[in-house]
C-alpha cells in the first residue's frame, strides 16, 4: 500500500484506529477523522496521520470533508458511532430518525462522494455486525441497519464500479465501544467468549482491521459482506 491514501472515518479508536495503524505499517498515508480532539492528537502523534475533526452526524461537514480531500484517494473505511438498543414501543423516534439519517442516508452520501473521489479499483468499506441478523426484542434499529448495509454495498458496488464497495460484519470486538456498553460486565463477557467461541479467544480490533486491509487490496472483492466473529454466530 506504499503511497496509497487511506481515509478512515472514525479512526481514533477501536476498529478504525487499528485499521489506520495497519495501513500506516503498510506504508500508506493515512487520513483519520473523529470528534474528540485529544484522540485526534494521539493518532496524529502515533501514526503521523492527518487527523481531521468531523462529526458524521453533520451532513454538510461530511460533504466539505470529501471536497477537501487530495483526490483521488485509494481507500475509505467508514467506522463511527455504535448502535442504540430500545424496544419499539419505548424508543425515541426522533433519536431513531437521527440514527437512520446518519447511518443510512449518510451511507448513501458517502457512496456518492466516493464515486468520484476514490480511484478506479480502490475501495469503500462499511462496518456492519453479525449480532442483529436474527430478530430479538430491543434490537430492531441494529437489525434494520444490518439489513440495509447488505443492500447498500451490493447496489453501490454495481453503481460505482470499478470503485469497490464491501462491508465487514463483526461479532463482539474488544474495543472502547464494547467497554463502554458493558461497563462492569466486560471481563465476564470476555471469559464467556473464551469459553464459547470455536476460536477460544476474544476477537480484537486488529482481527477486524486485518480483514479490512484485505478488502482494500484484493481487487476481486466487491458488493459483499464478510464476517469476522470467531464463529460467534454458530454458538447461538
Ligand atoms: N465493537 C464491537 O463489538 C462492534 C461489533 C460490530 C460492529 N461494530 C461497529 O463498528 C463501528 C466501530 O466500533 P468500535 O467498537 O471500533 O467503536 P469505538 O472504539 O467507539 O470507535 C469509534 C470511532 O468512531 C468515532 N465516532 C463515533 N461517533 C462518531 C460520529 N458521530 N462522528 C464521527 N466520528 C465518530 C470515534 O471517535 P469520536 O467519538 O471522538 O468521534 C472513534 O474514532 C461502530 O459502527 C460499531 O457499531 C462494533
Indicate the CATH topology.
Answer: Rossmann fold
In round numbers, the mean pLDDT is: 97
Order of helices and strands: EHEHEHEHEHEHHHE
Strand content: 15-25%
Low-confidence stretches: none
Shape: globular
SS element count, helices:
8
Give the proportion of residues in helices: 40-55%
Please tally the β strands and state the result. Answer: 7
With strands numbered from the N-terminus, the spatial order across the biggest sheet is 3-2-1-4-5-6-7
Structure commentary:
- It is built from eight helices and seven strands, in the order βαβαβαβαβαβαααβ.
- The protein has helices at 14-25, 37-47, 59-67, 93-117, 140-160, 176-182, 186-196, 205-217, and strands at 5-9, 29-34, 50-53, 73-78, 118-129, 164-170, 225-228.
- It is globular, with a radius of gyration of 17 Å.
- NADP nicotinamide-adenine-dinucleotide phosphate binds next to α1, β5 and α6.
Amino acid at each position: 500500500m506504499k503511497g496509497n491514501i487511506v481515509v478512515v472515518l472514525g479512526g481514533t479508536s477501536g476498529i478504525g484506529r487499528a485499521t489506520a495503524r495497519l495501513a500506516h505499517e503498510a506504508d500508506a498515508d493515512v487520513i483519520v477523522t473523529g470528534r474528540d480532539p485529544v484522540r485526534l492528537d494521539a493518532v496524529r502523534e502515533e501514526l503521523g496521520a492527518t487527523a481531521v475533526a468531523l462529526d458524521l452526524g453533520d451532513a454538510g461537514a461530511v460533504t466539505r470533508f470529501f471536497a477537501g480531500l487530495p483526490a483521488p484517494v485509494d481507500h475509505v473505511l467508514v467506522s463511527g458511532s455504535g448502535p442504540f438498543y430500545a424496544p419499539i414501543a419505548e424508543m425515541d423516534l426522533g433519536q431513531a430518525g437521527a440514527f437512520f439519517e446518519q447511518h443510512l442516508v449518510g451511507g448513501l452520501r458517502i457512496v456518492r462522494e466516493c464515486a468520484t473521489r476514490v480511484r478506479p479499483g480502490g475501495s469503500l468499506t462499511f462496518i456492519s455486525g453479525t449480532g442483529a441478523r436474527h430478530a430479538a426484542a430491543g434490537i430492531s434499529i441494529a437489525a434494520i441497519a444490518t439489513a440495509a448495509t447488505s443492500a447498500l454495498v451490493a447496489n453501490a458496488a454495481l453503481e460505482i464500479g470499478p470503485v469497490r464497495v464491501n462491508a465487514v460484519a463483526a461479532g463482539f470486538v474488544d474495543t472502547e465501544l464494547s467497554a463502554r456498553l458493558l461497563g462492569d460486565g466486560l471481563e465476564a463477557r470476555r471469559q464467556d467468549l473464551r469459553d464459547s467461541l470455536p476460536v477460544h479467544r476474544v476477537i480484537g480490533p486488529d482481527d477486524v482491521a486485518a480483514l479490512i486491509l484485505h478488502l482494500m487490496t484484493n481487487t476481486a472483492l466487491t458488493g459483499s459482506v464478510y464476517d469476522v466473529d470467531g464463529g460467534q454466530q454458530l454458538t447461538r
